[in-house]
Write a structure and sequence with these properties.
Elements: E1 7-11, H1 15-26, E2 31-35, H2 38-47, E3 52-56, E4 58-59, E5 62-63, H3 65-72, E6 79-84, H4 89-98, E7 102-105, H5 110-126, E8 132-134, E9 137-140, E10 145-148, E11 151-154, H6 157-168, E12 173-175, H7 176-184, H8 193-207, E13 214-217, E14 221-224
Parallel strand pairs: 1-2, 1-3, 3-6, 6-7
Antiparallel strand pairs: 4-5, 8-9, 9-10, 10-11, 12-14, 13-14
Helix pairs in contact: 2-3, 6-7, 6-8
C-alpha cells in the first residue's frame, strides 16, 4: 500500500529560520508549505489539511495563536508546535488551552526540535481522518459519503479510496500504478487497468458538475484540480 506523504505548514516570519525548518522537515520526507505572515497561513489552511503545523507566536500581522485557534476548530486533527520567545508559563498555557500540542522556546537546537516533531508525527499517524476536505468536496471515508455543495451522495468503497488518494495528491498527476497500489495493494492481486477506468467513470458520475476537475492524463494517470 502507498504511504501518504504527510504535509507540514511552517509559519515563521524569519526567512532564514523558515528555510532551515523547511529543509529539516523535507529531509524527513514531509511536503512543506511556508507562510511568513498570519494572513497567508490562514489562506493555506483553507486549501489544505496539514498533519503538522509549526507556528511562530510573533508574526508581522498578528499572533500565531489565531492560527492555532483556526486549526483546532477544524475537523481535521493537525498537530501543532508553537515557537515563541515568550517562555513564561502563562504565555505557554494560552496556546495549550487553545489546542496546541507542544511549545518550543527560542532559541532552540536542531535535536530538540526534531525530537518534538517526531513525537507529534508519531501521534498523528495513530489517527486516520474521519473527514477529508478539498475546496467544496467533503469526503467521509469511513461511511463512503461525498458531499459537494450540500449535495450528498454515496460512493462504493473503492471509489472512496480512489477519491481520497486523488485528494491527498491534489493538483498532482497520480499514475495508474499509484492508484492501484493504494486501492488494491493489500488484496494480493492487481486489477487490470480497465477496472480502474470503470471506477473512475463512476466517480465522475458522482462528482456531477465537478467531474471536469478530475482530468485524465492519457497514458499516465489522473489529476484532481
Amino acid at each position: 500500500m502507498l504511504e501518504i506523504m504527510q504535509l507540514a505548514l511552517i509559519v515563521e516570519d524569519d526567512s532564514l529560520l523558515a528555510e532551515t525548518l523547511s529543509l529539516a522537515l523535507s529531509q524527513k520526507g514531509l511536503k512543506i508549505s511556508t507562510a511568513h505572515c498570519l494572513q497567508t497561513a490562514l489562506e493555506l489552511i483553507k486549501e489544505q489539511e496539514f498533519d503538522l503545523a509549526i507556528v511562530d507566536r510573533v508574526l508581522p500581522d498578528g499572533d500565531g495563536l489565531q492560527l492555532v485557534e483556526e486549526l483546532t476548530s477544524s475537523a481535521y486533527q493537525t498537530r501543532i508546535l508553537v515557537l515563541t520567545t515568550q517562555s513564561e508559563i502563562i504565555e505557554k498555557n494560552k496556546g495549550l488551552k487553545l489546542g496546541a500540542d507542544d511549545y518550543l522556546s527560542k532559541p532552540f537546537n536542531h535535536q530538540e526540535l526534531m525530537l518534538r516533531v517526531n513525537n507529534l508525527l508519531a501521534k498523528q499517524k495513530i489517527y486516520s481522518p474521519q473527514v477529508i476536505t478539498y475546496k467544496n468536496l467533503t469526503l467521509f471515508p469511513e461511511i463512503c459519503k461525498l458531499i459537494i455543495n450540500d449535495q450528498h451522495s454515496n460512493l462504493r468503497p473503492k471509489e472512496t479510496q480512489i477519491l481520497a488518494c486523488l485528494i491527498y495528491h491534489r493538483g498532482l498527476v497520480v499514475t495508474d500504478k499509484v492508484l492501484i497500489d493504494f486501492v488494491w495493494g493489500d488484496e494480493g492481486k492487481t486489477p487490470i487497468h480497465r477496472s480502474l477506468a470503470v471506477y473512475i467513470r463512476r466517480l465522475r458520475m458522482a462528482l456531477g458538475l465537478e467531474s471536469e476537475r478530475l482530468k485524465t492524463i492519457r497514458g499516465v494517470g489522473y489529476c484532481l484540480s
